[in-house]
Amino acid sequence: MKKKILGVTLIELMVVVLIVGILAAFAIPSYRQYVLRANRADAKATLLRLAAAQEQFYAQNNTYTNNLAAAPPAGLGIAGTEKGYYQLNVVNADATGFTVTAAPGALSPQLQDGACQTFTITATGVRSSINGAGADSTAECWNR
Fold first, then answer.
1. Is 26 helix (H, G, I), strand (E, B) or coil?
2. pLDDT range class, residue 28, cuts 50, 70, 90
């Protein structure tokens, strides 16, 4: 009478490793793109909050401010985005309007997001975005 040996053979183990490798090859890049898209909310939410703060500043001072980081009443008290993925830059702020952009920071993982590199909002509420090639990507970036 022979004893039955339980276990897996090397071929079975290699088949399992191959299947896991194939699944990982599809899942990891897809997940990475999902994370980049989700992190865009950091820029959009901050720009909308900043636009509201600019309007409040305008109501009190009759002008918009270039000073985002300074605490009120000298500025808005918004130094950057909540999660720190984007840096804010006031392109133009005076008594007639403002334009603020959010671009990925130097060490931000969002630098790899070629579809939506910079986000912009103006005093009139116009939202825009530019991709890594410098083309307009507003419809894709602000509407998702």
1. helix
2. confident
